[in-house]
Design goal:
single chain; 357 residues; alpha+beta; Creatine Amidinohydrolase, Chain A, domain 1; Creatine Amidinohydrolase; 2 domains; six-stranded mixed β-sheet; 20 strands; binds manganese (II) ion
Length: 357
């Protein structure tokens, strides 16, 4: 935790901040080890350049004694006023998700302080995983691989999308995960053309394309992967060609990942291949997103992100082609950036599988 706070302090220095209010519960867990979901109540951790960090806690929470100064308040106390009393004049960094019902009263109480967005100081640190986080996330992806493999063996014609999604969700618990990192996506045939389709009662037929996008939570961290398969021989004459294209785009992007490469160039590696094959307009989302304590974290692999890749980053590589009314293909892995390349965290075969028959 000390190492993490030091990284945040360094980032604050670069942003010219001497004080920062951290309010995102995941960021607070990241920096303090204290895991609280405050719902509508105030929860804040004030990071100060002099090292005198302050934890603001509602006394209904059960929290083991921390190493920080703790300020406890009740539901009827003026908690924002208590924070106001711990700030120094000048500039204060604010978390991007801090509710206006806290921020605006604080601005009124301390007109001498300029409030600026400061959450990058923590988010940039969260984007680079430490050894403990890497070990947990590898395990989360290992469970995801196992469950994907089981699902592909389980699927048979006549099943509904919901049945398959329920099976996947149960297997996560069976394999030691605590739950899903997002709602499992199972799409048959034309439904796969909607990248975020929610499973319904559509029944699988022989020849249908299938998209499965799934992820679990393990020790507070998320996994996320997608595989596209066919139920027996694909009925659409273009399916195999498109599947092959998307797999090559996925592998092409993964092959160039190493420290120093720009995230936009990784996006382009996959996108150019798909565009050259004439399917560019059917790949309508960014190539990937960062992931950690939540499935989507700050940072993405897109044409707009010129930041370079650094060791310890974990993000998804998920090209897709979506043909309305026909089918969708998406192939997604999580990758961990290493000192000289990347490690792919998912191992389930990406070649076209013809299953269920
Ligand atoms: Mn994803």
């Amino acid at each position: 935790m000390k190492e993490r706070i030091n990284r945040v302090l360094n980032n604050m220095k670069e942003h010219g901040l001497s004080q920062l209010i951290v309010s995102d519960p995941k960021s607070i867990f990241y920096l303090t080890g204290v895991n609280i979901e405050p719902y509508e109540r105030l929860l804040a951790f004030l990071v100060r350049e002099d090292g005198k960090h302050v934890f603001f806690l509602n006394n209904l929470y059960t929290v083991p004694k921390t190493e920080f100064e703790e300020v406890w308040f009740s539901d009827t106390d003026d908690s924002v006023g208590m924070i106001a009393g711990h700030l120094t004049e000048g500039v204060l960094g604010i978390d991007k998700t801090w509710a206006a019902r806290f921020l605006i009263p604080l601005m009124e109480k301390r007109p001498d302080i300029k409030m600026v967005l400061g959450s990058d100081c923590v988010d940039d640190s969260r984007a680079i995983k430490d050894d403990r986080e890497i070990a947990i996330m590898k395990k989360a992806s290992e469970i995801n691989d196992t469950v994907m493999h089981k699902a592909l063996e389980f699927i048979k014609p006549g099943m509904t999308e919901k049945q398959v999604a329920d099976f996947i969700d149960r297997q996560f618990i069976e394999e030691g995960a605590t739950g899903n990192s997002f709602t499992t996506i199972v799409s048959f045939a034309g439904q796969g053309a909607d990248p975020h389709h929610e499973p319904d009662d559509t029944v699988l037929k022989e020849g249908d394309a299938i998209v499965i996008d799934q992820g679990c939570m393990y020790e507070g961290y998320a996994s996320d992967m997608t595989r596209s398969v066919s139920c027996g021989e694909p009925s659409d004459p273009d399916y195999e060609k498109v599947h092959d294209l998307v797999r090559r785009a996925n592998e092409k992007a993964e092959s160039i990942i190493k420290p120093g490469v720009k995230l936009c160039d990784i996006d382009a590696a996959a996108r150019d291949l798909i565009t050259e094959a004439g399917y560019g307009e059917y790949f309508n989302h960014r190539l990937g997103h960062f992931i950690g304590q939540t499935d989507h974290e700050q940072g993405d692999v897109s044409s707009a992100n010129e930041n370079t890749v650094k060791p310890g980053m974990i993000f998804s590589i998920e090209p897709g082609v979506y043909l309305p009314g026909r089918f969708g293909v998406r192939i997604e892995d999580l990758v961990l950036v290493t000192e000289d390349g990347c490690e792919i965290l998912n191992h389930e075969d990406k070649n076209l599988k013809k299953i269920g028959i």
